[in-house]
Amino acid sequence: MTTHLPNNLSPDAIDTLTELTSILDKLRSAQATTNTATLNLPGVPANRPADTTPAPGAVTGTTPLPSGAPANGASLSVKELPAATDNLKHKLQRARAAIKTLPDVTRTLAQQQGEIEELEERRRRQLVMLAKIKGAGLQFSLAEQSKGDEGDRMVE
To answer: Region Disordered: what ranges (predicted)?
Structure first.
């Protein structure tokens, strides 16, 4: 049973990780900029006291974030987050609607398991048939080869 995807459903239509990563990178960039600016304010000591040493691997205002700033240099504030995620929400809604149009989405696990068992049995029968055909082909090949050898002996 071959299932064809609807035209409006492609891997790009349901790939939200790329867009989400981009939004999070922009948000991190804005937060890193804010943290750095706070550390450089007048009245804030430049050197930390010894008792406030961050844990190894902790993200501080001076620790670079793993992904760095976004390539285009744009940053995103928390206030801009709802507007920035609108496209992502719409993409998820379209993907959800497209997935609901797929055939057999409402089937239960038991029904799917039954079909899998039928297909495995069909595959097993096909393998048996292919083995029989292979055997018959080898016998035919050997018979033809022996006929050719007998014909060569008659000519000599």
So the answer is: 36-74
